[in-house]
Amino acid sequence: DYKEMLRIIKFVISTEDFGLKIEPHTEEGVWHLKMLSDSDFAGDKETRISVTGYILYFCGVPIAWKSKGQKNITLSSSEAEYVACSEAVKEVQFVKQVLSALDIQVKNPVSINVDNQGAIYMAESYRISDRSKHVDVRWHYVKNLSEEGKIKVEFIPTEENDSDIFTKNLGGELYEKHSVKFMMSRKMLNEGTKRYNAVNSQIDK
Q1: Rounded to whole angstroms, how far apart are CA atoms 120 and 159?
Q2: d(CA 39, CA 180)
Q3: For residue 74, which of 133, 159, 158, 154 has the smallest C-alpha distance?
Q4: Angle subtended by helix axes 117-124 and 136-147, to nearest 10
Q5: Residue 51: what pLDDT?
Q6: What is the pTM of this model?
Q7: Among 16, 21, 48, 199, which residue carries the largest CB count within 10 Å?
Q8: 122 CB-near residues (< 8 Å, 6+ apart)
Q9: Whole-angstrom Cα distance, residue 20 to residue 102?
Q10: Per-residue confidence of the chain (205 residues) as pLDDT tens digits?
């Protein structure tokens, strides 16, 4: 409606000087990927479609993200989270193939972070219930990669899950907590540059 449109315009204007935060780092010289995945549950009031959201970091730098409605209606929050997890895993596998073609080998297993224990159980369990059979193919895909040691589905608290920002409207405080990890304004960049130059000048003395 009209108020929602005004909120969007306000957001665009207030973030026009924001860009991706590029601060790469490696762990003991090892290339690593980290995926954070999330979903709302039946958030669309008209269709009851859930939304998949994820963000993928390569050595601490965001390189892929997604916010998109799921194709099928899920029957529980765990199923919605699991569908989102499987989409995130597919993205991880694609990125790993691209990096491999560039002769860059990443550390295995790749951490897939989700904030739903039920989805983690589905990724680890050998049995799947009748009500979950419509996600059977996704289950086998994630399960096989987990067994092969290529991925590891792990729990992360909701308040630490950056992908939460892609699935639902967040309050200002929580939005800033997540967004500051992968976005930076020109003002923040300038302040960081000033601090960096100040430290260097002290070292040179």
Answers
A1: 17
A2: 20
A3: 133
A4: 70
A5: 95
A6: 0.82
A7: 21
A8: 78, 79, 82, 128, 132, 135, 139
A9: 23
A10: 788 889 888 888 888 888 888 888 877 778 999 999 999 999 888 899 999 999 999 999 999 999 999 988 888 999 899 999 999 999 999 999 999 999 998 999 999 999 999 999 888 775 555 555 556 677 778 888 998 999 999 999 999 999 999 999 888 888 888 888 888 776 766 665 666 566 566 666 5
User: Are residues 54 and 91 in contact, defined by beta-carbon separation less than 8 angstroms?
Assistant: yes
Nearest to 34 by CA among 55, 52, 14, 9: 55
Distances (CA, A) of 52 to 151, 163, 166: 19, 9, 8
Q: How far apart are the first and last CA of the chain?
A: 60
Determine how many CB atoms are found less than 10 A away from the CB of residue 82. Answer: 28
Q: Which two tokens stand for residue 37?
A: 């995945």
Cα–Cα dist 94/99, whole Å: 9
Pair type for strands 33-39 and 110-114 = parallel
CA distance 82 to 180: 26
**What span, in angstroms and rounded, lies between the C-alpha atoms of 117 and 129?**
16
